[in-house]
Amino acid sequence: MAEIVFKAGQHVVYPAHGVGVIKGIESQEIAGTSVKVVVITFEKDRMTVGLPLNKNTASKIRPICSKEEMSEVLECLKIPTKIKKSMWSRRAQEYETKINSGVPLSIAEVVRDLHRTATQPEHSYSERQLYQEALDRLMREYALVHKIKEEEALKKIEAALTAA
């Protein structure tokens, strides 16, 4: 497997936080040891993360997905939702796991499952939070992949959801 090279200015997905930009690679002193760190900024959250650069780093962050993968995501959004009968706490945990996986198709499943039309009952607070988090992550990556504004990406995602 070829080693992934990280470059300043490169957009990446860090599953726990979503889409960010690599600010650079720095040497930092941690517990008396010099460590090379990939510095990733998340503008929307006004946050910066330093991820130690080692052989496992490539498994923790990934490049932005392709247009083909994003097409699969839109198709997933068009599939009618299956109503699950399990307890909300259990489903919420599953949704959180899918969101934090960073896998666009899994995030799309959460958006699809938690999407409500005008005729459906209102979300609970926790459902709205999970839905919004998943939608934001999906929208940001979609916008980057297609080089469009986030508002346009949101319209495309909502159009796919209403096609279900």
Structure description:
This protein has 164 residues and is of the alpha+beta class. Helix content is 46%, strand content 21%. It has helices spanning 57-60, 67-77, 88-101, 104-114, 125-146, 150-162; strands at residues 11-14, 18-30, 33-42, 47-52, 62-63. A hairpin with a 2-residue loop joins strand 2 (18-30) and strand 3. The model has no long low-confidence stretch (mean pLDDT 86).
Please describe the structure with a list of short key phrases separated by commas or semicolons.
alpha+beta; five-stranded antiparallel β-sheet; 164 residues; 46% helix; globular; 21% strand
| Strand segment tally | 5
**What composes the largest sheet?**
5 strands, antiparallel
Global mean pLDDT: 86
Instruction: List the helices and strands in order.
Output: EEEEHEHHHHH
Structural class, by secondary structure, is alpha+beta
Q: What is the CA-atom radius of gyration, in angstroms?
A: 18 Å
Instruction: Tell me the helix content.
Output: 40-55%
Query: Strand arrangement, largest sheet?
Result: 4-3-2-1-5
Net shape? globular
The low-confidence parts are none
Helix-strand layout with pairing:
Elements: E1 11-14, E2 18-30, E3 33-42, E4 47-52, H1 57-60, E5 62-63, H2 67-77, H3 88-101, H4 104-114, H5 125-146, H6 150-162
Helix pairs in contact: 2-4, 3-4, 3-5, 4-5, 5-6
